[in-house]
Amino acid sequence: MEPVPLHEFRELVADAIDDLPDELAHVLDNVVVMVEDRNSDEPDLLGLYDGVPHTERTGHEGPDIVTIYRLALCDACDDLDDLDEEVYVTVIHEVAHAAGIDDERLHELGWA
Prior knowledge:
Helix content is 45%, strand content 14%.
């Protein structure tokens, strides 16, 4: 699909954050969510978590960063409804990593 404008994409990300399961809400206190066009090393990457999972923190770490990649997500989707769903899945996936949830558990929870 054609890329959506940045402001519209940011709204999709904000909506996804607002709709996160209650089990993940506490994680957002120490997570910065950013939107970029693409990951320079992996252009097809949809999202990236960078930080120390909350289950491994000692209290001296800075904020975690979740980056959501606009153009990669637009490339992966057929239409706006598909994009909305994929943005939600990507946001929940990366925030779950901040909570210390691995990919296997994400699948068990139905969040991947």
